[in-house]
Amino acid sequence: MYQVAVYGKGGIGKSTMSANISVALAGMGLKVLQVGCDPKHDSTRLLLGGRSQTTVLDYVRTVPLGKRRLEVVIVVGSEGVLCAEAGGPEPGIGCAGRGILTTFDTLRKLGADSLPTDVRIYDVLGDVVCGGFAVPLRGEYADGVILVTSGEFMSLYAANNIMKGISNFDTGKPRVIGIIQNSRGVEREDEMVSRFAEATGVDVIAVIPRDRTFAEAEANGHTVREMFPDSELSDRIDSIARRIVEVRDGDRVAVNPHPLDDDQLSDLAAGRPIRPGTGKVSGRIGCTGCQHRTSIRETRVMSSCAAYGAVAAYLKMNDVKVILHGPVSCMYMMDTSRNKAVLDLYQKDLFQVRPYHNLVCTCMDDTVSIFGGNRLLEDALDDAISSGSRRIAVVTTCMPGIIGDDCGTLIDRFSSEHPEVRIDYIPADGDIQGEYTDGYMMAAESIADMIDTSVVPEEGLVNLMGTSFFDLHSRENLDSLTKMLSRFGLRENCRFLDETSSDRIVDYCRASIDMMVSDTPQSRELAEIIRRRTGREPFLHAIPVGLYSYEEWLDALGERMDRRDEAKQEILRVQGLYDSFVSSHRDRFSGKRIILVNKMNNNIDWLIDLLRDLGADIVRVGVSPNPRRKVMRAVTRHVDLVTEDYTDEMLSSDLDSLGPDLLVSDIARHVTGRCRFARFTKVGLGVEPTLRYAEYLENIMRLPAEEGWKRGLRL
After folding, report:
1. Which of 38, 123, 127, 507 is catalytic?
2. Is 483 designated active site?
3. How confident is the model at residue 127 (pLDDT cuts 50, 70, 90)?
4. Cβ neighbours of residue 16 closer than 8 Å, sequence gap 6 or more
C-alpha cells in the first residue's frame, strides 16, 4: 500500500484536488482510501454526492469503545473510493491536532489497516504543522507528499513550512512528489510558483487553471473527474495520478526539499533574485531521535510538579474536598505517595490521627484533548457540592493547561450559584507554574486568605508554621515540643499547614505568637505569606535543634513571655549535659576530616556546631543546586563554610583531593571506598537528639571505609 499526504494552506483547494486525484486513481483500477484530516470535515463530500459523513471524532465522542464499528466511519464513495473524515472539536475547545492522532489510532484499532487498499490519500490542513497535523508526515503514514499552493505569498509560506515539517520527520529517503499549482489568477502567479519550486528543488507536477468547471461540478456534489472526464482539467488531474503511481513503482523519484530561510522568502515576495541559502531555517531540522539531546543539561529538572505541591498543601486540611483536574494517573501518584507514608506511620502508632482521603479526580482521558474537559470538572463540582462539601479546592494538571480549558470561568459560575461554598482555584497546570514548592506556596497563599484578621489574639497560644511537620508526628518529639512550650505557658492553636481544618485556619489570629517549625527557605517563605496576610511579625527563632539554637530560643521566648528564670534554668541544664558529652567523646572526632552535603537545604547549623565542638575538621559544607535557590539562599550562620550550588561532580573531586574520613549527607551517596558515609535526617528537637546522632556518627567511624563483602562483589 502506498500512502500520500496532500498538504496546503487552508482554502487552497486540497480537498478538491484530493477527491479528484482519488477518483483518477480509482479509474486506473486502484483501491483508494481517502482520509480527511481537517476539522472542516469536507474532504470526502464530493465523493459522496455532496453529503457529509460521520466523523471519527464525533463517533468516538458518542459511541462506547466496545460498540464501535469500522463500517460506520469508512463509507464507499464515487468509483468505489473508501472515505473517512477525522472531524474536530467544537471551535475554541480542545486540540484539533490531537484529534488527528486519535483518528489514526481509532481507525487502526477498528481494523482499517486490514482493508485491501492500494493507495491512501491523506488530505491535511497545512497552515499549522503542529504535532497532530504533522502526524501524516511521519514515515509510517506518508510514503509521498504533495503540496498544493497558489502564487499568493501566504500559500507559498505555508508550503515552505510544510517542507520544514517534512525535514523534521526525515525518513532517510526522498518523499516529496511535487507541487500542484492551483491557480488563483493573481499577478505573475506562474512566475512566483516556478521560482519557489526551483529554489526548493521541487517539481511543479501540474498547473490547474482557475476554471468555473470546478464550481459547476461541486454544485452538483461531484468531482470534475466524474462529471467532465474528457475535459482538459481531468487530463491534468490524471497526470497527477500517473505521477503518484510512477513514484510508487520506482519509475520516477521523489525529492528532499530545501526549505527557504526568512531572507530567501523575503526575496521571493519582493520579486528579487533568491539569494543562496544559509542552510539555517527557522525551526529544527532533522529527526530529534537521532540528535544529541541536551535539554536536560540546559534546563532544570524538577523532582515533582506544582500541581502535586498544591494538592499536598490542601490535603493537610481535613474538611476541604480537593478536585484534581487531570488524569487518574496523576492522582494515583500524588495520593499514594502521601498516604503510603501516612499509613506506615499510623501502623507504627506514631501518627496521632487516622489518615483521611479528600482527593477526587476528574479522570481526564485522551478524548478531552479533543473535546475539552470542562464537562468533567463541572460534574466533579456538582458531585462535591451535592454531597455536602462546603470548602473545595480545584487544582489543574498539565492536560487542562495544554488544551486550554477555561476552568476559571466555570469555577466563577459555580461560586456565584453557590455562595455558601468556598471554591479555591489553583491553576498549577502541572508544572507550568514551577515545581512542587511553587505549587505548595500557591495553595498556601489561597489558604491564608481564609484567615480572619479581626480575631483578637489571646496570650498562651502559639501557631506553628512549616511545609513539613514530620518531626512532630512521633510521640517522642511531640512530647518534647509540648514540654518546651509548656515551660512558658504556651499551647498550640493552629498548624499552618499540618493536619488542620478550615476553622483553625480562620481562627489563626487567636494565637499571639507565630513560630516556624524549622528554619528553612520554604518555612521563611510561608512565614512571609502569613505576614503579608495578617500584618503580624513572626517569632524570629524556629523550634530549636542543637545547643546554640536552643539557648537563643530560650532567651528570646523567656524575654517575650516574661519567664526569664525558667529560660535560664533550662539553659544551665542543657549546657551541663552538652559539655559533659563533648568532653567524653572528643577523642573519637578530634582531627577527623568531614564533608557535609545538604541537598534538601535544611538548617544543619546544629551539626556543624556539634562536630566543631567535638574537634572535627569540617573541610566542606556543600549545598546542592535548587531550582528556587535564585531567590532563596541557604539558611545558616556559617556562611563562610558553605559552598552554594554544590554538584555531584564537585563532590567527587573533593573526595579525591580533600581525603575526608567521613561524608555526611541527607541523601545516599556513592563513595566507592574513598571514605565512610553516614546520612543525617531531622533528628528531633532540643539538644538530646543531636547527642544521640553524634554517637551514631562515632559508630560509623569505627567501621572500615568499605566492607569486605562490597569488595568481593567487584571481583
Report:
1. 127
2. no
3. low
4. 46, 182, 214, 218, 223
